């Protein structure tokens, strides 16, 4: 590698770090494990995948899910404090930073998705040998898919974001402050890019050495090109459906093309034989990972079973996921523990004091599945979500069996949560899968069965997808809740002026409002009551 290229790499890294006004010494993160001084696309790629904003880490759950998206979707228990709907500026700054710049797990995250991608892109573009470039292309393309996935989540939370210019250098070789790009334009770029990526993975042929290197470094999908194709197609399907109420013509055309041509556009849908561990796109924890979520969920009493989820969505239908999602819990009186007789969610209608003194009388998140399970994977996209998307598309536009897709998604969701429970063999022996008869009865229950008007059927699809997402995928659940306006949640009003209800978007962090001169172009939009471009219902 020439000194010129090395200088470019270091400059790109510097720009990526200074996007948010933060400067760190990062060199030790970006050299090969054998301690050479050659920056490596392969190592950057692995570091990019090792993202604590995907994995259910303590920091991500405690500071982002438990205080923001889990609350806004009522998929996690919380106390009705006056500040419940007030954004924590420091923690959302961390979430923003973890997309744009690398960091360490001790700082709250180690993703740096955009910074890593720009480094990979720069290295890839600097390769002059055709064979070497062909071997490196698979890393660049996979890194691009991951970057697109994470960028879409930033759009879904904030709206317009620095994107095309983020992490780049200007024509004179100096750093530049990135401009904000319209959220709809970012989505368009992502959708086009995902289409191209899926096409690449469908026909890519790697040399034995390149395939071995990619398999070794790919800690997400183990070098399976077919699964990268499914991931790209499924992410594209998710985002097309997200904009389906603002640009229905495009969404309908492209979605039906995808889901009605499975040979050309394979999806993460478990069509042949659904097994969560091999079908879904999951970020498995590293072998030496021993942490769990009990502290993240107990420090501010987020372990309680949510009211609407348990009491209104699951319990009336005798949902077979209840035993692996919740514990009945109980309370201690004197020296005696009194277990609760049934599963009941903590009422959202109580004020914070009433909730706190009655915590023991209500169910909590299951200890084996969630609280003490160090084997929980990060959830990128699952077959149940994909099949719920197919069900919605076919219900709205025809062309396929919406009922079959809906029921398949529910069956898969049940299998998924029992899979999560089975990963923990220390706290409690895994629970046995429910019988086929129990699942059939659940699917035939009046509240769940695929019967009713078109609007009622869509409401059932959206409700069951929300249940499936749970708090672990509350970022996706929050986006879908705003897009569909389902389920019909009731929130306890806060008395804090300006924060009476949950926001419809996050406001920009201080790194942008204080230091990015381009912030002026989005300043008027930067209100918590603003709407993301796809939020039009």
UniProtKB/TrEMBL annotation:
Pfam hit, one: SusD-like_2
Family matches, as InterPro entries: SusD-like_2 (IPR041662), TPR-like_helical_dom_sf (IPR011990)
Superkingdom of the source species: Bacteria
The protein's name in its UniProt record: SusD/RagB family nutrient-binding outer membrane lipoprotein
């Amino acid at each position: 590698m020439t000194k010129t290229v090395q200088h470019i790499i270091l400059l790109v890294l510097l720009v990526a770090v200074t996007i948010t006004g933060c400067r760190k010494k990062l060199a030790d993160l970006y050299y090969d494990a054998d301690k050479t001084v050659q920056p490596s696309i392969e190592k950057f790629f692995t570091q990019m995948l090792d993202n604590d904003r995907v994995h259910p880490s303590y920091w991500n759950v405690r500071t982002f899910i438990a205080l923001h998206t889990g609350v806004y979707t009522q998929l996690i228990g919380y106390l009705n404090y006056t500040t419940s709907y007030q954004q924590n500026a420091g923690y959302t700054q961390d979430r923003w930073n973890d997309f744009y710049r690398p960091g360490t797990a001790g700082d709250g995250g180690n993703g740096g998705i955009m910074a890593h991608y720009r480094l990979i892109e720069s290295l890839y573009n600097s390769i002059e040998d055709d064979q070497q470039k062909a071997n490196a292309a698979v890393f660049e393309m996979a890194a691009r898919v991951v970057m697109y996935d994470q960028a879409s989540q930033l759009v879904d939370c904030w709206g317009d974001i620095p994107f095309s210019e983020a992490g780049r250098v200007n024509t004179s070789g100096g750093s530049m402050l990135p401009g904000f790009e319209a959220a709809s334009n970012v989505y368009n770029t992502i959708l086009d890019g995902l289409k191209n990526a899926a096409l690449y993975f469908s026909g890519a042929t790697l040399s034995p050495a390149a395939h071995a290197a990619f398999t070794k470094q790919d800690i997400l999908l183990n070098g399976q090109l077919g699964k990268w194709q499914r991931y790209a197609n499924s992410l594209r399907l998710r985002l097309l459906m997200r904009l389906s109420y603002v640009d229905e013509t495009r969404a309908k055309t492209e979605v039906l093309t995808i889901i009605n041509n499975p040979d050309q556009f394979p999806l993460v849908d478990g069509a042949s034989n659904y097994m969560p561990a091999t079908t879904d796109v999951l970020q498995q924890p590293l072998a030496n990972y021993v942490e769990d979520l009990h502290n993240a969920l107990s420090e501010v009493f987020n372990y309680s079973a949510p009211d609407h989820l348990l009491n209104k969505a699951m319990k009336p239908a005798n949902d077979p996921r209840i035993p692996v999602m919740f514990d009945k819990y109980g309370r201690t009186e004197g020296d005696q523990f009194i277990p609760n007789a049934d599963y009941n969610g903590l009422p959202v209608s109580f004020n914070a004091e009433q909730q706190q003194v009655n915590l023991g009388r209500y169910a909590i998140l299951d200890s084996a599945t969630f609280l003490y399970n160090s084997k929980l994977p990060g959830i990128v996209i699952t077959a149940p979500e994909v099949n719920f998307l197919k069900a919605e598309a076919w219900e709205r536009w025809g062309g396929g069996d919406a009922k079959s897709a809906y029921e398949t998604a529910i069956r898969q969701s049940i299998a998924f949560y029992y899979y999560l429970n089975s990963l923990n063999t220390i706290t409690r022996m895994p629970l046995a899968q429910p019988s086929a008869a129990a699942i059939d009865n659940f699917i035939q229950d009046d509240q769940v069965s695929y019967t009713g008007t078109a609007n009622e059927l869509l409401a059932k699809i959206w409700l069951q997808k929300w249940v499936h997402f749970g708090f672990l995928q509350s970022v996706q659940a929050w986006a879908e809740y705003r897009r569909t306006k389902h389920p019909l949640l009731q929130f306890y009003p806060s008395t804090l002026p300006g924060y009476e209800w949950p926001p419809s978007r996050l406001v920009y962090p201080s790194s942008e409002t204080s230091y990015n001169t381009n912030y002026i172009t989005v300043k008027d939009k930067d209100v918590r009551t603003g709407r993301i471009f796809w939020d039009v219902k």
